[in-house]
Model the fold of this input.
Amino acid sequence: MFRSIINNRIKFVFLVVITIFLIVIIRVFYIQVIEYKKLSSLAESLWSRNLPVQADRGRILDRNGLVIAGNVTTSSLVLIPVQIKNKEEVAKNLAEILGVTYEEMYKHVSKKTSIERVHPEGRDLSYEVAEKINDLGYDGVYLLKETKRSYPYEEVLSHVIGYVGIDNQGLSGLELMYDKYLTGSDGSIKYYSDGKGNKLSLPEIYNSPQSGFDINLTIDLNLQLVLENELNKAMKKYEAEGAIGIVMNPKTGEVLAMSSKPSFNPANYQDYSKETINRNLAIWSSYEPGSTFKILTLAAAINEGVVNIFEDHYYDSGKINVSGSTLHCWKPEGHGEETFLQVVENSCNPGFVVLGQRLGKEKLFKYIDLFGFGKKTGIDLNGESKGIIFNLDNVGPLELATTAFGQGVSVTAIGQVNAVSAIVNEGAMYKPFVVKGISESDTGVMIEEYKPTLVSQNLIKKETSDLVKYALESVVANGSGHNAYIEGYRVGGKTGTAQKVGSDGHYMVGNYILSFMGIIPANDPEFVVYIAVDGAHNVTQYGGSVSAPIAKSVMNSIISLYNLPPDPEGMPRSYLWYEQKYITLPNVVGMNKTEARDMLNGLTIEYSGTGEKVASMSPEANTRVKEGSIVKLLLN
Done:
C-alpha cells in the first residue's frame, strides 16, 4: 500500500510537470507567433523615434493644368532635447539666428519631451537661416523638410481658392471644401535611441510622404487674369466700393472666371478684415439687379405670347401711373412711340411695367421661380445666398410693376448668370460648377471627374430663346449696350442700373450698382459675361457707360483666347454722332477706277501701278475698317 501511494504521488508530480511544460510551450507559441507583431511593435516603440516629414499639399490647377495654388519647400526646426549636450550654448546660438530671446529658446531646448517642434519661429525657415543652423552641427538639432502653400498669382481667384493655416489645413474656400483630398500623408525618418534618448548607431529608415490629390478647376487662368485686371482698373478708376465679374459657359455650367473685389492675398490673409476674406460677393452678395432682370421679363412675355416685339407698340411719355404711384423712365421726357423691341433697346421701365401687367403676377412669378430666383444655384462653393423674392400673396399691382423691371427683388450675381444662361441656351439650365475633377498629383490620372449637371430643360421654347438673343444683340447694336459692341462679332447684352438700399430701408441717393450682362456669340452663346461695379464715383451712373466697356474688354480677350471667328451676319451698329464709325469694304476688284472710287466713298484711296482696272485691294473686301481709313488699290 505504501508503494502504491508513492507511485500515485510520482504520477501526480509527473502530470503537474507535464502540464506546466505544456503551458510554457503554449505561452511561448502565443508570444512568438500570435502576439509577435504587437509585442515587437511595443518593444520597438521603446527605442525607436520618428522625425516627421511633411507631405506636399495637393495643387489647385486651372482647366489647362496651370498652377493657381502650389507649394514651396521650406525647412522647420525640430529638437531632441535629451540629445542636446550644452543646452545653454545651443539656446544662445539658435536664439541669435532666429531672432528670439535666449529665455524663449532655452525653454525649447530643455523641455521634457522626446521631440520638440520650435513653433512658430522655427517654421518656414528661409534657405539662408536653415544653412546657418545646419552649419552649427549640434546633436539633437534637426532641420526637416516642410511645405508651405504658395499662391503665385497672389490675389487672383482668392475668394474661390480660399486659404490655409500655418499647418497647411484648409480654412476657407476650396482649400477647406476639398481639404481631405488636398491633404497628403506625412512620412518620417525613423532612428533608434537607448533608454536615455541617445541616438544609436543603427541605420535610419526613411518613410516617404504621400502628396495630396490635385483639384482641377473649370477656371481658365488666362481669362481669369483678364477679368481680374479689368476689375482692378475699374476699382481704381471709379473709386468703387466693390466689383463682381463672372464668365460662364451656358451650355455646361462651367465657370470660366469669377472675381470679387476687394480681394485678398491668401498667403497673407491675416492682414485683411474678416469681411474681405470670407465674402465671395459673386455668390454671397444679393442686391436688386435692375434692368438686367428685364431679360427674364422679356422671355416670359414672349413665351406666354403676350407680346410681339416687332409689331406691338407702346408710347412712352417718361412715366406710368400704377395704383396711385408714378414710376419713371430713366429718360424724363420719355422715348415716345416705340416697338417693344425698342422698349428693350432703350431699357424703358414703363414699357416693362406694361409687359408685367400683361403677364400678371402668377405668370411672371412662375418664371421667376422656374429660373431659380429666390433659390441657391447649388454651385460647388460655400457661402452661397439665395436672394429675396416677394411672396406671391404680398404682390400687388405696384410690386408686380417694379418686379418687372428688376426693382424690389434681391438676387445674387451667380443666380442672374445662371438664369440668363438658361434663357439663351434654349431653356436648358445647368448647375454652375468650378471643380472639374480630382487627380493624382504624380500621374495626373483622374480619380473623380465631375460632368455638367442638367438641372432642367424646356423652360422656354426655342423660338422664345432665339427672339431674346435677337433682342439682346439689338440692344448692343442699337440701344443702351452700344459700348459693348465689337466690330465683326455678334455680341448681345443688357445694361443694368440699380439704386442701392440703405440700412434704413430707403433707396440711397446717387449710389448705384452698375451692371452689364453680355453674351457672345449672340446667335449661339458660348460665353455669358456679367460685370457689376458697386458705388462708382465721378462717372455717369449707368451700366452702359461703366460696366459695358469692361465687359467688352473681357469679350475681346475671349475672342483672342478662344479664336472665335468673325461673323459678317451680325447686326450693323447704329452710331451716335460722336462715335467712330466703321464700314464694311465692298469688293471693287475688276472695277474701273471711277466705279471703285464711287463704291469706296468716305475712304481715302491710294493707287499703285498703272491702268484703269483694279487688280487687287488692301485691306481685302468685307473687312471692317474705320470710316476715312486708307484703302490701297493695285491697278493692272
User: Anything to note?
Assistant: The chain has four domains: 2-34, 50-215, 221-264+278-561, 582-635.
